Amino acid sequence: MPGRRPGTGRPSAAGRRGRRAATAEELSLVGVAVYGPRGQVDKTVKGLGLHP
Question: 15's torsion region: left (phi>0), alpha (psi -120 to 50) or beta?
Fold first, then answer.
């Protein structure tokens, strides 16, 4: 994947510069992370659509 350092899972400096140069309108939200106790997270996200 371009912009990533092999084996680290972290963006490279070139990848970070490219994202900084982009406007918010040019970037797409690709995911949301939710962290917490499983029961509370399940109640929070219950009923949300997973895919458009």
Answer: alpha
Record the pTM.
Answer: 0.39
Q: Does 18 have pLDDT greater than 60?
A: yes
Measured in whole angstroms, the distance separating CA 16 from the mean position of its chain's CA atoms is 14
Q: What is the DSSP letter of 9?
A: -
The values of phi and psi at residue 8, to 5°, are -105, -25
> Tokens 């458009």 — which residue?
52
Q: In Å, how far are 12, 42, 52 from 49, measured between CA atoms?
A: 33, 13, 7
